[in-house]
Amino acid sequence: MSKNRIINLFQGIGIFIAIISIGFIFISNKQSYNFKYDPIHQNIKSLQLNDNYNFAGESVPIQNFDVAERLERELLANTFQHSGTVIHLKLAMRYFPEISKILKEEGLPDDFKYLAVAESSLRNAVSSAGAKGMWQFRDAAAKELNLEINEWVDERNHFEKSTRAACGYLKKLKTKFGSWTLAAAAYNMGPSGLQNAIDEQKETSYYDLNLNDETNRYVFRILGAKEILANPDKFGFYIQNNEGYFPLENYKIVEHSGSITNLADFAHQHNCTYRMLKVYNPWLTKSNLVNKTGKKYSIRIPN
């Protein structure tokens, strides 16, 4: 065999081996992408429930497996919804001190500050049903509680006034239903709906009632918020005091009893930006204020 033919033979064998090798590598890689996965480095564990829980001083029957599973659901949801829970912790540093103060003055248990977390995540939210503010009042309910609502003013977004309105409403519900737990459930679904369920099912405990999906979870959402926000390090959240959102306390009050044609001009006259005027006074809904009755409004101007 000539030298050239030998060289060509070895070249052919080499090419054949290369093609087989490339095909094998391609198939191997394809299989690894389809059938083999690198593990994600996480350390996720189940939660261990306590033996005792209470809401507003009322015992939670945690020995009932259904109650335990409903609470665990909310604890797991909030524990592993990291960004939302971190924001709740930061906002709690802003709002909880004042909410606790008002609850105490109005004679309500301190646990009701966690109801605001369940309702609105401590923000002036707007629901699909038209409820607004941190305490989520609809128009009719808000007006019954003497909150002003018109084209230019919506006191559902007034932190102190809406909090006191919520306190008044919850006290009425407690009087009607006899427990703070049922009062919280009625706050969510309405007193008529709750009373109908009690009459139909012949049960007097929230934990024994079969309500709509939202209200079935509602008190447990409050309990979950309470457990995590009161004991964040137990659930792996470490937020320092200086990392929270500071209370909006550094302001002066300007009393105004007339209309304001342009709130931006009003803000600039008081050495404030329009944005900050709205942050401190979210109850002002427009870029102006029409005040035909001469009512005196207390407007907060940040220092």
Largest sheet: 2 strands, antiparallel
The succession of helices and strands, N to C, reads HEEHHHHHHHHEHHE
By CATH, the topology of the largest domain is: Lysozyme
Q: Structural class of the helix and strand makeup?
A: mainly alpha
Please identify, by name, the CATH architecture of the largest domain. Answer: Orthogonal Bundle
Please count the helical segments: 11
Over all CA atoms, what is the radius of gyration? 30 Å
Question: Mean pLDDT score, rounded?
Answer: 91
Helix content: 40-55%
Uncertain segments: 30-35
DSSP strand count: 4
Give the DSSP E fraction (strand runs of 2 or more residues): 5-15%
Number of domains: 3
| End-to-end C-alpha gap | 100 Å
Please write the CATH class name of the largest domain. Mainly Alpha
- The largest sheet has its strands arranged as 1-2
The dominant shape is globular
